[in-house]
Write a structure and sequence with these properties.
mainly beta, six-stranded antiparallel β-sheet, 1 helix, globular
């Protein structure tokens, strides 16, 4: 049986469009470390599930079993309902370090 130190850490991966391109990043809270990020070279179509998982793998993460992508809307300018709408996807991932039986 594993102890807590051997369990892979879980994080939230998010994906949004920035500067006309989809970007996927892993949110690392309570740290000064730079968030791992992957930029896709397009705004349309939305990156496929396979492309997202491949990007996460390159960044050192994998999906948490049973995780599903969720989508939410936000505004480009906070508090301004006439501002452009931003779509943000979120997904639970875990670090690949320590993953195993």
């Amino acid at each position: 049986m594993r102890n807590a130190q051997e369990r892979p850490q879980e994080f939230t991966a998010q994906m949004s469009v920035r500067h006309g391109r989809w970007r996927l990043y892993v949110v690392l809270l309570n740290t000064t470390a730079q968030w791992p990020e992957h930029s896709f070279d397009r705004a349309w179509p939305v990156p496929t599930f396979t492309e997202r998982e491949q990007a996460l793998s390159v960044l050192g993460f994998e999906p948490v079993p049973g995780a599903e992508w969720s989508w939410t809307e936000d505004t480009e300018t906070h508090g301004d309902p006439s501002s452009a709408v931003l779509l943000i996807a979120a997904f639970r991932v875990r670090s690949r370090a320590g993953v195993g039986a």
